[in-house]
Amino acid sequence: MSASTSHHPLAFAFGVLGNIASFIVFLAPLPTFWRVYKKKSTEGFQSVPYVFALFTATIWIYYAFLKSNEILLITINSFGCVIETIYIAIYLTYATKQARVSTLRLLFLVHFGGFCLIFLLAHFLSQGPTRVAVLGWVCVTFSVSVFAAPLSAMKMVIRTKSVEFMPFNLSFFLTLSALMWLSYGLLLKDLYVATPNIVGFSFGLVQMALYAKYRNNKTNVEEKLPEQKADVVKQMTILTTTPELEVQVQAAVSSHANSTDAHPSSEHNNDQYMHAQTCHNEKIIEPSMAGQLVTCEV
């Protein structure tokens, strides 16, 4: 038990529980990358969420070392760095040349350029407690921005009155993780840990409320859309992680392109394509770090 938690056994307990919940959230994209491995293709989904998840975990580790005696922050974010690195490595292995180059460029820009800038701000333009404060607010900024990702999912739930676009298990563990880390931050009077998790927990409660309200309305989407469009919506139901929706939507769009070449006058195919393309353009659920960051990277 670290010095900072030795006088706060309850804080230590919440930190351990937060590690467990965050561990589960970090593993959420595994089915997506298993499919990538099996198909030997990234199917067009983006690497951006995983690049920023890796960066956020990295700066939280930096914050924890700078503050000292924050072993619980170091353990979960170290795991986060490892698992996100694995995800990115798999992506780079099976991505197209253009996607691979874009990912490597983003990695260099964010992890080298971004981290160097943060290092300069923390070590040369500030000292002592101010240094921790500067880095703490950088961590807060990145973490809070992550919690905006589920907003598009909540918007779609309200719009369709269906929870098919919002996986309960992921929402539950994100909420639980935020609660654990919020409690940890409050007990240790660590504003930088507590602040982003206030946002995360609040959004989590809203998601739980939406799920409770619309959980029995699974037929609403079919009632509001023509039969062929409802079929496309069903195919886009999220089972595990938000990036999976992006993959499924793009697959539907690609499928349409092939089918219309053979049957250019098919109204059924055109309706499916238009609905899939609309959902994709509106970004029903951003394939973002919400799939993995979360408060696990407190």
UniProtKB/TrEMBL annotation:
Annotated protein name in UniProt: Bidirectional sugar transporter SWEET
Subcellular location: Cell membrane
Transmembrane parts of this sequence: 12-36, 48-65, 71-94, 106-126, 132-153, 165-187, 193-212
PANTHER family: BIDIRECTIONAL SUGAR TRANSPORTER SWEET11 (PTHR10791:SF22), RAG1-ACTIVATING PROTEIN 1 (PTHR10791)
InterPro entries: SWEET, SWEET_rpt
Family indicated by similarity: Belongs to the SWEET sugar transporter family.
Keyword Transmembrane helix: yes
Domain of life assignment: Eukaryota
Function per UniProt: Mediates both low-affinity uptake and efflux of sugar across the membrane.
Gene3D superfamilies: 1.20.1280.290
GO molecular function ontology, one term from the record: sucrose transmembrane transporter activity
GO cellular component, one term: plasma membrane
Pfam families with a match to the protein in the record: MtN3_slv
